[in-house]
Amino acid sequence: MSRIVVLGAGESGAGAAILAKKQGFDVFVSDLSEIKNQYKTMLNDAEIKWEEKQHTENLILNATEVIKSPGIPDKAPLIKKLHAQGTSVISDIEFAGRYTNAKMICITGSNGKTTTTMLTYHILQNAGLNVGLAGNVGNSLALQVANKNFDYYVVELSSFQLDGMTEFKADIAILLNITPDHLDRYDYKFEKYVDSKFRITQNQTSDDAFIYWENDPVIKAELAKRNIQSVVYPFAIERDKKTKAFIENDELIMKTLKTIFTMPVSELALQGIHNTYNSMAAGLAASVLNLKKDSIRQSLQDFQGVEHRLEYVATVKNVRYINDSKATNVNSCWYALQSMKTPTVLILGGTDKGNDYSEIEELVKERVKALIFIGIDNTPLHNFFDGKCNNIIDVQSMGDAVNTAYQLATDGETVLLSPCCASFDLFSNYEDRGRQFKKCVRSL
User: Fold this and answer.
1) Dihedral sign for Cα atoms in the order 155, 424, 184, 402
2) Taking a C-beta distance cutoff of 8 angstroms, is the pair 174, 106 a contact?
3) Strand 131-135 to strand 65-68: parallel, antiparallel, or no bridges (unpaired)?
4) pTM of structure
5) How many domains does the chain have?
6) Which among 271, 302, 333 is the end of a domain?
7) Model pLDDT for residues 64-91, shown as the tens digit of each residue
8) Counting CB atoms within 10 angstroms of each CB, which of 14, 62, 256, 282 has the fewest?
């Protein structure tokens, strides 16, 4: 019997283990951290052996194939050993893809992934399709393939997940943008990260669709070097000869092989230039699937947005508080600052991933009246911003950050949490960071 070892027992790992067991493999799960109780229960109910707080090598190195959590880097010693002995190491998405014929609508990009994924799922669900939500959002794709029978999946893919995928194919691939992120995982080589993102187009044929932002300079340069097999659907604000979604006379226009779709930009639920791109990408995917125009229009009008992404929290003493905790890289913060219409108190900080803050330098000078640094080590932030903003304050907790912002912001201004950094120094994840922010704001 072939042996599957799953490294990491979070949502994706536990789901992959369940699917592997269902497919008749001998399955073992190993996690260096403590496994959450809900996943222990899942594994126990399926009679899958597991270990936590250690990796017992003789139980792992004998695997026929290893499914690893996206959070484990390729440079981890155990992964290096597996590669050296020729053991196949894949992602849970790659594994799940082997056991379903469902159509895959896959979304990646440095920013906007979650919003576009949720919006695409919303459109497909409202149109009455039998559709699942997976990847970085929703439940594990592998678990859904094991227990459900969806005809479509909308899958948000990070570069880490794409790295572990070789045979998997997206029927519709969406690439929103590429800006430097996670460079610590790519030997600080941007080209390696770019290659990772472009894996979303691998294995595509002329029957498939590739939707992308036409004016992204990195995507543009890459397309000149690559031979994309699928039908391309570029989107941009201003149309070119090939542009399939664009704005003309304040109307969003989308053209596919079979249809032309139009609606006023003012009617889109998601406002702001970056959200217009997200709506174009999701709308094109729906149009490629030939969904009814009225249904697409309705969904683009009534979508409710994503928690922790430019999420309005409250207005206190005529100061608006915005939670953008999902901004874990500089480009996300750039989008957030670009959408600010008033002087802003900006809360930044966390685990720096080799960030280049020059991208937001001009916007900080234009729109930010004070910077609050929240993190264990704010040295990289000080090294860049000292002398560029008159008011910089360091804090060590979310309570202090919100109270300091409350003191600094005055009538008609905005307080924005858009940290640019990962959250793991002070918080369990970006959701925890965002929820703490909201709790502190609501108790002002």
Assistant:
1) positive
2) yes
3) unpaired
4) 0.79
5) 3
6) 302
7) 999 999 889 888 999 999 999 999 999 9
8) 62
